[in-house]
Amino acid sequence: MAMTRSATVSLLAAALVAAAAVSVTIGAVHVSGSDALGALRHGEGVGAYVVRELRAPRIAAGILVGCSLGTAGALLQTALRNPLADPYLMGASGGAGLAVALAILAGAPASLYTLAAFGGAIAATSVSLAVARGAGTSSQHRLILVGVGVSSLCAALTTLAILMAPHAGMSLSILSWLGGSLTGHGWPDVRWATLTAAAGLALTLAVAPSLDAMRLGRERAAGVGVDVMRTQFVVVVASSLLAAGAVSVSGVIGFVGLLVPHAARRLVGGSVPWVAAASAPLGGLVVVLADLVARGAAPPIELPVGILLSIVGVPAFLAIVGRTTRIA
Amino acid sequence: MICLSLVLALRIVSLAPALTEDLFAIGAGPAVVGVDANSNRPAGAARLPRVGGMREVSAEAVLALHPDVVVGIPYEDRILADLTRAGVRTERLDVSDLRGDFAAIERLGVLSGHAREARALHRVIERRLAGLSAQAARSRTASAFVAVGISDLRTAGRGTYIDDLLRMANLRNVAGDLPLLWPQYSQERLVAVHPEILVLPNPHPALLGAPWERIDAVRAGRIVEIDEDDLLRPGPRVADVLEMLVAGAARWR
Fold first, then answer.
1. Is CB count within 10 Å lower at the N or C end of chain B?
2. C-alpha gyration radius of chain A
């Protein structure tokens, strides 16, 4: 079984690398395959610029966003013992959207949106955690309820910001950011996402064993010496860090964090470290392929990647909900 | 006489800035009793009660104004359908392109009892457009990209009044062959087609980093900035927009 699992994860990682390599050669500007891969290192001219400064960072951002969301979803679903937990559950996307809306209203340059989104995501998540813990024993249900509440509040305030914007262009910018897209993100954003993803993954590794024990239930996990509350807290922090990094470079890309862990679980079984290890490359693969369709299906028109993912994601989501109720 | 008193008593709610401007431009301003949140022009419209905006129109707020007719655009189909069910007369006017813009002016004239003024306004606008277009035709054709949205590169495709105006300004719309009204344009393609002139709504965020650093029009400063309230809405001032386009582009050809 162990061989099969590691083989599966390796295969997923290889598929991700292959998808990324193919992606570099496809786009609205024709660059031949060998030229495109060569342009990653050097080269002048429009083709080289397009590949190095527009296509490559976008693919890298897609990989990071997908890996982050997939891993974060896998962790949260186990820690909160809820198959419908999503990395944005604690308010990361709501907080990010609100912060970007405020940045746009304040007339901040577009290069600051990433930082604003990250700050907003962390702020909203912190509020959720503080309220849930301040209320005493923080059961996973309380965490979820508080997260939903904070997210709704942020969404309402964001809608208000859209309505109150003094310029129509500002409203359009906010709506467009909320839609989720990998376009318009250069290397600075990729470096930033790498940093947050690394921090989130490091935290993840620290708690993965305890988390695995929690699959048996809170009582049994406590019985084998796992600090359930602390593990849950660290997981929520780690997954929120991953979600904040992802949302800050791509806007709200839904369903990846929810669905990828379920698919990964089918491939490698229920063990948490393995599910997380498989969810990362699988998430990256899903986002890279979706973005390839978004920019390659009808060039030079860009399709909204968030909507593409939802078209595939919603039916899959309904299937999960259907199965879950049957089990219950 | 009876007809006149009916007209005087008419109460109109406008759910789109372009339609609001049309109504005031044809002298039907006094009949307008409510507008959407984005209807900021003219000054008379800005003082009217607001009923919400951007698909967030409040049907209740509209009904509280007891309108005889509510005018809106296709984007607002849902709220218009709700109001129709509530027994209010609604009129859906598609102002996507110039033809629709003119049809809306004439239709609003009929609805508000200002048909004559509407026809006159239509004629004046068309005459100005024709004059400016003839003027632009004397210089060479240049390519242009209109960035309706800066960060997402939303642009104006075929079938928009902006595409119509670019053609009249003797500018070749880079996105003019795209079948969507307001598509998101590929960054890489924009770098490859290097449009000679960039048209932007004002205000707009700074053009920093990729892809702007690589676009000749940005590096050479060949940018025509047009107030967003002029550029981003059709209505009675489309000839003003064409004048700005023609004058702006004339600097580089």
1. N
2. 20
Strand B142-146 to A301-302 pairing: unpaired
> Is A167's CB within 8 Å of B192's CB?
no
- For the domain B2-121, what is the CATH code? 3.40.50.1980
φ, ψ of residue B69 in degrees (nearest 5):
-150, 140
Residue B198 belongs to what H/E stretch? strand B197-202
Distance from CA of B200 to the nearest CA of A (A): 11
Residues of chain A contacting B178 with CB distance shorter than 8 Å: 300-301
**Does the N-terminal peptide bond of residue B42 adopt cis geometry, omega within 30 degrees of 0?**
yes
Residue A324's pLDDT is what? 56
Residue of A104, A159, A183 best to disrupt the B interface, most CBs of B under 10 A: A183
Kindly report the nearest CA distance between residue A173 and chain B, in angstroms.
Answer: 7
Q: How far apart are the CA of A187 and the nearest CA of chain B, in angstroms?
A: 9
Please tell me whether the interface predicted TM-score (ipTM) of this complex is above 0.90: no
Would you place residue B1 in the very low, low, confident or very high pLDDT band (cuts 50, 70, 90)? Answer: very low
pLDDT tens string B214-235: 999 999 999 999 999 999 999 9
For residue A98, give the CATH number of its domain. Answer: 1.10.3470.10
pLDDT band with cut points at 50, 70 and 90 for residue A65: very high
C-beta atoms of B206 and A109 within 8 A: yes
Identify the domain containing residue A215 by its residue range. Answer: 2-327
Q: Give me the CATH topology for the region B140-250.
A: Rossmann fold (3.40.50)
Mean pLDDT of A20-39: 89
Going from N- to C-terminal start, the domains of chain B cover: 2-121, 140-250
Total number of domains in chain A: 1
Whether the predicted pLDDT of B151 surpasses 90: no
